[in-house]
Amino acid sequence: MSALTLQFTHAGLDALLSAQARGFKGQISHMAFGDAAYTPSQNQTELRSLKERVAIADSDYQDGESTSLKVAGKFDAPLEYAIREIGVYLDSGEVDASGEPELILLGVYSKANTTLGYRTPDVKVLQWLTLSLAQLPSESIEVKLSVDNLNLIVDKELAEMTLTQLDTMHRQIKQEFRLQQQETALSELQQLLTSEITRLDTTHMTRLDDRVEAIYGVFNGELANVTRVQLDTMNRQTNQEIRLTTLEHQ
């Protein structure tokens, strides 16, 4: 990303020269977004439509270019707006009545009828900006990081991400455990059904065998009665034939 050429303000340049005269450097401490699009002025002391201002979370000079400086700020307020102006602030070293640091607008970036980006309330933005310092006095700038610097932000985000991953893994393990329990219960049910079917088959066959034996018994009894009747009839016929034969011989 190419460096943004800021419109430096009279108030910001005066603060840098004053600090330099006392042997100090001006401390860039905050950056801000607004939603007004215009041509910046040297006489500005604030963004025209300030929406969100945050402390600098990290910084890094661009490799090989001592006149460029990279700064980052975390924008995480639940706000929604079009980003049309960017402000960079110096820490004056003083605090206001509420204990907040008094800030001096060092520079502004904006263009008429131009939207630079868009902020949504559901998205946290760690915004990096590369600033051109070519128009500033040499070695007059340093960066003052907030207490919540980038490492802490990253650690917090990493911790939140890790917690989310662990929670997801925990739910997956619980789901797999429930599936295992269901599979075990299904297997036990199948075994129980198989055993019950086997028992029913055995009982049914036993009852069927008993019925067959009873039918055989009845059949054999009936057969025996028929056989006795037939034998008795044959015996009477034989006796009758013998008597007839005896009479014929007389």
TrEMBL record:
The record's Pfam families line, in alphabetical order, gives: Phage_tail_fib
The name under which this protein is listed is Phage tail fibre protein N-terminal domain-containing protein
Residue stretches making up the Phage tail fibre protein N-terminal domain = 6-95
